[in-house]
Amino acid sequence: MFCGEKKLLETERRVKANDREFNEKFQYANNRIHTSKYNVLTFLPINLFEQFQRVANAYFLFLLILQLIPEISSLSWFTTIVPLVLVLTITAVKDATDDFFRHKSDNQVNNRLSEVLINGRLQSEKWMNVKAGDIIKLENNQFVAADLLLLSSSEPHGLCYIETAELDGETNLKVRHALPVTSELGADISRLAEFDGVVTCEPPNNKLDKFTGDLAWKDNKYPLNNEKIILRGCVLRNSSWCFGMVIFAGPDTKLMQNSGRTKFKRTSIDRLMNTLVLWIFGFLVCMGIILAIGNSIWEHQVGDYFQAFLFRDEVVKNPIFSGFLTFWSYIIILNTVVPISLYVSVEVIRLGHSHFINWDRKMYYSKRETLAEARTTTLNEELGQIEYVFSDKTGTLTQNIMTFNKCSINGRTYGEIYDNLGRKIEINEKTKPVDFSFNPQADSKFQFYDHSLIESIKLGDPKVHEFFRLLALCHTVMPEEKNEGKLIYQVQSPDEGALVTAARNFGFIFKSRTPETITVEEMGKVVTYRLLAFLDFNNIRKRMSVIVQNPEGQIKLYCKGADTILFEKLHPSNEELMTLTSDHLSEFGGEGLRTLAIAYRDLNEEYFKEWFKLLEEASRGLDMRDERIAAAYEEIERDMMLLGATAIEDKLQDGVIETIASLSLANIKIWVLTGDKQETAMNIGYSCNMLTDDMNEVFVISGQTAAEVWEELKKAKQLLFERSTGFTNGYAFCEKLQELKLGSTVEETVTGDYALIINGHSLGYALEANLQNEFLEIACICKTVICCRVTPLQKAQVVELVKTHRKAVTLAIGDGANDISMIKSAHIGVGISGQEGMQAVLASDYSFAQFRYLQRLLLVHGRWSYFRMCKFLCYFFYKNFAFTLVHFWFGFFCGFSAQIALDTSYWTVINHVFIWGSIAVYFSILFTMHSDGIFDIFPNQFPFVGNARHSLTQKSTWLVILLTTVVSVMPVITFRFLKVDLYPTLSDQVRQLQRAQDKATPLKSHKRQPRRTSSRRSGYAFAHQEGYGELITSGKNMRVKNLPTSGLGKTMYNSTSWIENLCKKTTDTVNSFSPDRTVKL
Amino acid sequence: MKRNNCQGLPSRMPDNTAFQQQQLPACRPSLTARAVLPGFFATGVSFLGMGILLILSAKSVKEIEITYTDLCSNCSKLRENASNFYKECTCSIPFFIPEKMPGNVYMYYKLHNFYQNYRRYIISRNNRQLLGEDNTDVENCAPFQRASNDRPIAPCGAIANSMFNDTILLSYYPNSSTGINVPLLSSEITWWTDKHVKFQNPKSSNLSSAFAGTAKPPYWRKPVYQLDQENPENNGFLNNDFIVWMRVAALPTFKKLYRRIHRIQQFADGLPAGNYSLDISYNFPVTVFKGEKGVVLSTATWSGGKNFFLGVAYTATGAMTWLAAFSLMAVHLKLKKKKASFQC
User: In Å, how far is A854's CA from the nearest CA of chain B?
Assistant: First the structure.
C-alpha cells in the first residue's frame, strides 16, 4: 500500500511546525518529485542493462561473441554488430528523449515558486525546497504545493475553497476550514512564525478522502480530519490567501501516492513474437545438431580423403570436435531464422502507423487545433484487440457543461422549435438562437432556441415570471461582481449554475445576497426579497426550498426538487397540470436530460410565524434535532402549486452515442468509472444509451458492508440465471445445459441485456479477494457497467482485475489527473487532450480531443495496424525460413562445412540496414555491390562481382523463377477461391453485395432518426453538498463588506453551532460515499 | 502547403495527402470464378506449351560423357602416390559418336565427389592477390599461404592449389588410320567479369618478373606465368583454365567448361559422327578422395544443356493447373446451383 520499502517502517508521522531541525530527524521526503528514470551518468549502464534483458538483444550479443571466434565464424562480424548497434541506439535515443521530457516536466514542477515562512519572513522558495513542517502561504488560483494542514485563511472562520479536479475529477468547489485556534493566527506573520504545534498523524497513504491525526499545541490536543487538509494538486479558489503547514511533501503526498508506477507496456503480438522466437530458436538448435552430427559423419567418412587438397587444421583433427565447431558455425549461419531485423522492422512499422494516427484529419479537432497523437509508438496493433473500454465520465463522455435546455411552464413546453408545418426541427449550429441583446447582463455563452419563451416573458405571463423568479431565488449560488460590473456566479453545483444563468438571461437577474436578503433584478426592476428561511437540500429530501417575503409583504415558499418527491407535496388542485408536466418530464427524461420539478406556495404571515416558532424550537432542542427539523420542513412544504419543470442537459461530447453504439457492435464492452454520484452517472448512462428501458434488469449495488454487497451480488446472479433459464424453452434449455456440461462459460448461457451499477463503497468490498470473482462474473455478463464514486486507485484496481482475470485487452480513457492510475494500468491509456489539465495526456499512450475519435482509433487504425502487422509477421517468418532452409539443405551437399550457398554476407547487411528502404534502394545498392568498382576497392569483402550479371542473363534462371512463382501461387489461389466460393466470410459477402450494388443504381441513403424511446425519467441529481443553506443564512461565508450593518439579521440557528453543523454534515456526506471507513484497499 | 487560420498562425491540420490519410488507391483482387478459371486455363495452356518446348529442345541436345578414371586405371594408381608427382602419364581413350553433333560443341571436364563447396576450401583464396594488386597478400589462404622458403605462394590458397591440371586433346578419325586433331579453343570459356574485372596480372614488363619473389602452389608443375606455353597472353592469373577453376562449383559433382570446338574445316557444322579418341595427360589425382573424373561433349540450345527437369516441371505444372481448373469449375458450378436454390 505504501510507496517504497523504506516507508514501510514509517508507522506514524510527527511534524513540528517551523522546526526543520526537529523534522530532519525523521528524514521525511522533501517536496522534490522524480518521475524520471535516468540521469546523465546512470543512463548508459541502466539503459543497456534494460535493453539486454530483451531476449533478442541478449541473443544477438551472444551471436556477436560467437562470430569473433575465427574457427566458428562463418559470417563476418559486421553482419551482426551493425544491426545490433542500430537497434540499441534507436531504442536508447527514444528512451533518452522520453526521459528528457520527464526531467523537463519534473523541473518545471519542482521549480514552481511558493511563499514559505522561513526565519520569521515570507520568502519565495522553489517547490522542491519545501519541507515537511514548513508553513506556506497560498494565493487564489494557485496550485497547492504539498499536502497542507490549513492554519488560517482570508475568509472568515478560517474557511477556504478548493477545487479538486486534478484529484477526483469533480469541478465543484469544496470547503475546507481551519481549526478555530489556528484560524485566529490570521495573516500575522510573527505569530505564525511562533507557531510550534506538533502534528501526529498516519503515515503517507493514497486515500484521498481520509486523514486522521491530531495537533498538539500549547498543551492542548486538537483532532484533525480530512476537512482541515488541503492536498497537493488542488487549486485554491475564491479565497484570496491561506496559510498551511506542510505535512506530506513530494512523493509522500496523496497525489503522488495515487499515481501508479509507469509500467512497460507490451502488446500481445510482442508476447507472441517472443514465444515464436523461442520456438524458432529451439528449431534452430535442432537444425544445428542435425548438421553437426552430419558434419562429424562426413569428416569421418569423406573428409579424410579430401585432405589431399585441404589439410586439416590442427584444431579440427577430431571429427567430433569438428562437429561441435560446426554446430556453432551453423547457429551463426542459420541465425536469420531468428532475425534481429524482425524487432527493428516491427518497431519501424509501428512508428509508421503512429504517424498515420498523427496525420489523420478525421481525428483532428479543428476547434482547438488538436491533433490526435500516438505518444507510445509501440502499441498500435493492440488497438485492434481491445475488448474492454474503461471510460471516465466528466470531460470524457460529457463536456462538463450544463445547459438549460428545455422547460415546461404551466403545462406548456418550451425549448423545442417547429417549422411552419408543425414539424420538429433538429437544433444544429445553423439554428438561430434567441437574441438576448435586450438584456445587458445576459451571459453570452447561454443559448436558447425557442423564441416563444421570450415572448411569453415579454407578454408578462405571471406563471412564466414566477417560474424564473423561483430560479433566481431558490439556490445556493454566490454572486461576485467582477470589474466592469460583470456578474460572475460562484456555483458549487453546475446544475444550479445553469438554472440561475438561464433566469439571468431571461431577465431575472440574481444580483446579490446577504444572509437575510436576496436582490434580484426582475425585468429591469431591482427587487430585494427578505430571506426568511432556507430549507436546505439533503439526499433524503431531494429538494430545497426558500421562504421569501417580497417588498409587498407577501410570503412565498419556493421549492425545487426531484419530481417524484415534489409531486407528492402538491395541492390536489394540481392534478391536471401534474399529469401534463409528468408527460413532459418523461419526454425530457427520455432525451437524457436532468429534470427538476418546480413549485411554490403562498403563505400567510400568521401561519409562517407559527411554523417558524416550531422550527426554532426544533433547532434548539438537543435530542432528535435533525428529525424534528426535518419534520418541520415537511410541515411547510406541502400543498404547493406546481409551476413546471426544468430540463438541464449534461452536454455529451459530440458523437458519443454513435461511438458507443458502434463500439458495442464491435463487441467492445464499455465500463464507465466515475467519481460522480450515482444519480449523475446513471443519468449519463441513459443519455448515452448505455442504459435503456429495454434492459431486462439494472442491478444497483450499494451495500455498505461486505455482507450486504455479497448478498446483492448473489441476488443479481440468481436473477441472471433465472431469467436466462426462464426465457428459454425446454429444448433450448437442454441444449444450454449440454453446453454447460461441455465447459462453456456462464456468459454464453445468459441472454438479454443487463446493466450493473455499483458505487465506490461497495466496489471496495467487491474488489476484495473473496468477492472479486463473483463481481467480475456478473459484471462481464452485463452489457453496461457503471461504477460511481470511485477513487483513482479503485479505477486502476478495476482495470487490473479485468486485465488479470479476463486475459482481455483493456483500454482506459480519461481526461483528468484522477484517471492517471487507470490510464497507466490499462493495456492502452488514452488521454483526452486540449482540456486544462494535461496530466492524463502525459500519462497516456494516445491522446486526442474528443471521445468520438476512439471509434476511428480502434476500428480503423487498430484494425489496420493489426492486419498489417500480422501480414508482415507471416511474410517475415516465411521469408526467413525460405532463406535459411536453403542453407540447411545445402549443408547436405557441402560436407556440412557451414558454407553459405548464397551471398549472405551482403544479403544480411542489406536486409538489415535497409530494411525500411524501398526495393529501389535495395536494388541500387545490390548493383553497386556487384559493380566492378566496389570489387576493385574491397576485393576480399565483395567477391561476388559478375554473379548477378551472369545468372540473370541465363534464360533458364527466368524460367525457373516463373515456374516457382506459379507453383507457389497456384495452390494459394485455389484455396482462397474455394474458401470464398464455398464458405464466404461476412466481409466477403459484404464485398459481393457492394459490387452488386455498384452495378445497380445507387440506393438512396436513409436518414436515421436518432430518437430514443425511453420512458425513464431522469432523477434529480444535485451534485452538491448539504450544508450550504446554513452557510448562506449564517452569512459566515460572505465577506465582511457584504454584511449588512443594520442589526436586522436574525439567524436561524445559534450562530456558534453552524460551523459544527456544517462540519458534521459534510463529513457525513463524505463518509457515506467514501469507502475507506471500513474498507481495506 | 499549410493553410493559415484566422490568427495567421499556420494551421496544425494535417496535410490532406492520399498517403497521409491512408487513401492511396488499393486493389484487392476478388477471386471470382470469372477471374480465376480463365486465368488457370490460360496458365495451364502456356505452361504445357512451354514444357513441351523445353523437353523438345533438351532432347535435341547431343551429349556424350566419358568417365576416364577407370579407363586410365594405371595412371590413377600412379597418381595415388605423391612421390610420382613429376612422372608423366598419358592415356588414350577411343570412343564413337553415333550421331552428328551440330552447331557449337563444348567440351567439359567433370569431377565427382570433389567438395569445392567446402567452407574452409572456399575461403582459402585471396582476391586482392588475384587482382594483381599485391602478390604478397596471402591472407585467408591457409593452409597454402607460403612455401617452405617463406615465399608467398602465387596464387595462394587451397582452391588454386588444387587446380585441375589434366590436358585433354580430341582427335577425329575419319578413317581408321589417320587422326586429325580437333581444333579446340580455350578463349571465351570464362565469365566476362572474371576475365576483365576479377582477375588481373600484376603490372610489370613481363610476367615472369611480375611474379618474381613468389612461389608456385605446391601441387603445380609449372609456375603461374607458364601455364600456357603456346599462347603467352593466356598466362598468369588471366589463364582461362585457372579462372574457370577459381569459380567454385556449388555441388560436389560438377562439370566445368574446358574447351570449345573451333568450327573450321570439316568441323564447321559441329562434330561429325565417327570415331574419336581422347588423349589425356593424366595429372589430377581423384582416387585419393574416392572421386571420379570424366569428359563431357555437348551441344547447347537456347534453354541450356541436356536437362529435362525444367521441361518436365513445366509440363507437370501445366497439367496440374488444368486439373485444378476443371475441379474448381466443377465445384463452382455445383455450388452455384445449390446456392441459387437456397436463395429462392
Answer: 17
Q: How far is A370 from chain B (nearest CA, A)?
A: 8
B250 with A901: Cβ contact below 8 A = yes
Q: Which residues lie below 8 Å from residue B327, measured CB to CB, with a gap of 6+?
A: none
Residues 6 or more apart whose CB falls under 8 angstroms from that of A515 comprise A531, A1032, A1033, A1034, A1035, A1038, A1043, A1044, A1049, A1051
Is B14 in Cβ contact with A360 (below 8 Å)?
yes
Q: Is A886 exposed, middle or buried (0-12, 13-18, 19+ CB in 10 A)?
A: middle
> Looking at the complex, does the CB of residue A540 fall below 8 Å from at least one CB of chain B?
no
Question: Which CATH superfamily does the domain covering A402-422+432-651 fall into?
Answer: Calcium-transporting ATPase, cytoplasmic domain N (3.40.1110.10)
- What does pTM read for this prediction? 0.68
CATH 2.70.150.10-classified regions of chain A: 13-19+130-259
Listed as ranges, residues in chain A with pLDDT below 50 are 1-8, 726-746, 914, 918, 1002-1016, 1018, 1021, 1023, 1040-1081
Q: Could you tell me which residues of A are annotated as the binding site for Mg(2+)?
A: 392, 394, 815, 819
DSSP B11: P
Of A74, A359, A954, Cβ closest to residue B20? A359
**What are the Cα distances from residue A544, in Å, to A247, A471, A640, A1029?**
38, 12, 13, 9
Residue in chain B closest to A356 (alpha carbons) equals B20
Contact A361 B14 (CB under 8 A): yes
Instruction: Say what the pLDDT of residue B184 is.
Output: 93
Backbone dihedral region for residue A422 (phi beyond 0: left; psi -120 to 50: alpha; all else: beta)? left
Report how far residue B239's alpha carbon sits from residue A301's, in angstroms, rounded to the nearest whole number.
35
Residues spanned by CATH 3.40.1110.10 within chain A? 402-422+432-651
State whether residue A343 is helix, strand or coil.
Answer: helix
* Cβ atoms of A863 and A667 closer than 8 Å: no
Least Cα separation, residue A843 to chain B (angstroms): 23
> Is A905 touching B (CB cutoff 8 A)?
no
A1015 C-beta neighbours (distance < 10 Å), count: 10
Q: Which site among A71, A298, A300, A306 would you substitute to test the B interface, given the most B Cβ atoms closer than 10 Å to its Cβ? A: A306
Say how far apart CA A976 and CA A978 lie, in whole Å: 5
pLDDT value of residue A723: 61
pLDDT (tens, 9 = 90+) of chain B, 344 residues, equals 444 444 455 677 888 888 888 888 877 777 888 888 999 999 999 999 999 999 999 999 999 999 998 888 888 888 888 788 888 889 999 999 999 999 999 999 999 989 888 888 888 888 888 888 888 888 888 888 888 888 999 899 999 999 998 999 999 998 877 888 999 999 889 988 888 888 888 888 888 888 888 899 988 888 998 888 888 888 889 999 999 999 989 888 999 999 999 998 889 998 999 999 999 999 888 888 888 999 999 998 888 888 899 999 999 999 999 999 999 999 888 877 665 544 43
The answer to whether the CB of B324 falls within 8 A of the CB of B143 is no
**Minimal Cβ distance to B331: which of A362, A955, A978:** A978
> Which residues from chain B sit within 8 angstroms of residue A976, using beta carbons?
31
The ipTM of this complex is 0.72
- The minimal CB distance from A305 to the residues B14, B288, B303 is found for B288
Contact B134, B212 (CB under 8 A): no
Please give the class, per CATH, of domain A13-19+130-259.
mainly beta
Q: Do A305 and B117 touch (CB under 8 A)?
A: no
Q: Where are the beta strands (DSSP E) in A71-212?
A: 113-118, 121-126, 135-139, 147-153, 159-163, 173-177, 198-201
Annotated catalytic residues of A are 392
**What is residue A761's three-state secondary structure?**
helix
